[in-house]
Amino acid sequence: MRQRLDRVVLDDGTAVAYASIGSGRPLVYVMGWLTHLRLGWELPAERALYEALAQGGRLVRYDRAGCGLSPATQRPASLAYELEQLGAVAATLGEPFDLMGTSMGAPVAAAWAAAHPASVRCLVLYGGWVRGAELSAPGVRENVLGLVEAHWGLGSDVLTDIFAPDADAATRAGQARYQRACSSAATARDLLALSYDLDVGDLLGRVRTPTLVVHRTGDRAAPVAQAEALAAGISGARLTLLPGRSHLPYAGDRDELVRVIRRFLGRPVARRRAEGLTARQREVAALVSQGCTNREIAIRLGIDERSAEGHVERIRLRLGFRSRAQIAAWYSAQWGISPPAPGAGARPR
After folding, report:
1. How confident is the model over 147-158, as a mean pLDDT?
2. Which of 46, 78, 173, 263 is buried most deeply by CB count within 10 Å?
3. Residue-wise over 69-92: b if at least 16 C-beta within 10 A, else e?
4. Window from 30-44, 233-247, 263-277 with minimum mean pLDDT
């Protein structure tokens, strides 16, 4: 897909850069804390998320004022200012749209849906919260804000460890550099402070849009209790909890997150593919489909039993499955192999 860049100007002169990919029914994506439309598009994992969400439709996302391709502004960060920027981007569409907010963008998207119900077809909230003050203890918040302001390099490293704890060292280092390229330390501090100040508890009861709240159970940046509160506050909202610790939507099991979102939006869902598995993991999946236990897998592949168990667990998480039986059925469907009959070679682990 090709990314098309443009910008819109608010009444006060604020310029907001936005990007579109794909065509068709629009999905407006309100991103989290710090963003950069061009640099984010160059990160393979982040780009893969956007392309997957845009399949068969149009994905529109933007850099909030002071981030990425949007120039800095003298206006202080606030929910009202966030809604102005979202409104300016939405006005370019000229039609109702699906709306997705991630992290800090989730309460912003919820507030928009509460105020403009006719403009939103479906609402998706990922990694969000109701009250930012409940994300961490006051002392922790002040320490993090002070660190970002005084030592932006170290602050970005610390926050990257929170946002993507399962990423390897090289990936975390790259993410920290990306955050520093997105904005100045002052803007990063102000937007992080806004994240802690956001409170949409009084607005959720006014949301009438069909809503999906999706969250990873081990999210260290936004406790899962906040997702539960979001879903409880919106009438008829659907709550889906996924395994994993990454706060960043494009880290961890990105494919399963996309499947959940596209299914809710009524868009076609692609079959799970094997490209995301390593060669060794595909071998293990094949043996699981034959009904092999972890011990038998270890013997066949010349590895220890604990390694075999680890491979099975990583396959399960990568594909978003809950059991070995699902891995076996998936592998069989991929290669047209009939799974073993119950009890035929499949023995307790």
Report:
1. 89
2. 46
3. bbeebeeebebebbbbbbebbbee
4. 263-277
Give residue 21's pLDDT band: very low, low, confident or very high (50, 70, 90). very high
Distance CA 238, CA 236 (A): 6
Burial category of 338 from C-beta neighbours within 10 Å (exposed 0-12, middle 13-18, buried 19 and up): exposed
Stated pTM of the model: 0.78
DSSP strand E in 105-181: where?
A: 120-126
Beta strands in the chain (DSSP E): 4-9, 15-22, 26-30, 58-62, 97-102, 120-126, 211-216, 238-242
4-265 in CATH: which number?
3.40.50.1820
Query: Domain coordinates of the chain in residue numbers?
Result: 4-265, 279-335
Given a cut of 80, whether residue 97 has pLDDT beyond it is yes
Assigned token pair, 221: 């940046």
What is the model's pLDDT at position 348?
A: 36
Encoding tokens for residue 207?
């949301």
Whole-angstrom distance, CA of residue 260 vs CA of residue 320: 10
**DSSP letter (8 states) at residue 214:** E
Spelled out in words, what is the top-level CATH class assigned to the domain 279-335? mainly alpha
Contact 220, 140 (CB under 8 A): no
For residue 235, the tally of other CB atoms under 10 A from its CB is 11
Give yes or no for residue 320 having a pLDDT over 70. no
The Cα diameter of the chain in Å comes to: 71
